[in-house]
Amino acid sequence: MKISSDHDDRQVGTALVIGNVxxxxxxxxxxxxPLAGAxxxxxxxxxAACCLAGLTVGFFVAPTDHQQGESYRIIFLxxxxxxxxxxxxxxxxxxxGTGLVFNTRLSHMMASALAPTGALFTFxxxxxxxxxxKPTWGTWWVWDARLTSELILLxxxxxxxxxxxxxxxxxxxxxxxxxxxxxxxxNIPIIYFSVKxxxxxxxxxxxxxxxxxxxxxxxxxxxxxMAFAAWFYSIAAALHRARSIILExxxxxxxxxxxxxxxxx
Length: 265
Prior knowledge:
- It is built from eight helices and three strands, in the order βββαααααααα.
- It is mainly alpha-helical.
- It has one domain.
- The protein has a three-stranded antiparallel beta sheet, with no helix packed on it.
- Helix 1 packs antiparallel against helix 7 and helix 4 (145-166) packs antiparallel against helix 6.
- The radius of gyration is 21 Å and the shape is globular.
- It starts with a strand and ends with a helix.
- Residues 1-8 and 10-16 have low confidence and may be disordered.
């Protein structure tokens, strides 16, 4: 591995060369565009395969829960969506912060590309949580600490997208959105630790990085498969949306005109 100098977005950076591949060149929208197009189908097919396998295991193979009956199966949608809603926000904030510090266009584009998918998973987590809460708690919604903080996360996603859309100049919109994204990161640990910090109706985690899962092996398998499906889908959707954003923002560049004529960047 060697380190050399390179330029991107009129800014001096560090070029990371592994083997014969200069990975830093993909910080350029022109270089990243075909790479995203090549990777996107692989992640889309992986998402479809994992989703099919996860739903099969979760809805047809996993046993019935002895306390909640069949209604517990909503966890195979709810839990992966909740995980991804928080994870995508952290990744979005990372790219937004990277763009803010290093003034790289592609970083801001990636943050913008991730926001709609993050908002989608947050909505799914809230919606499926309500469906699960009705038979479990006897109500569709309570102002529980975790539910409320998850709702705030949805508003953060909406606020990020609305703020960027409200500012006509892309660079100013990117910087304003990045500040909001970074400030909103404080809500992620609140969501995660709310069950431990406050007395809430929401049950504790069944899957932990520090301990064995407190569920049957088939349930755990189905949930992990659905988590991978959500993860792969998020990558495919972000890459697809990033390509659209690149074409929109770079439409005056010569390489975009060449792509329009030849179909190749």
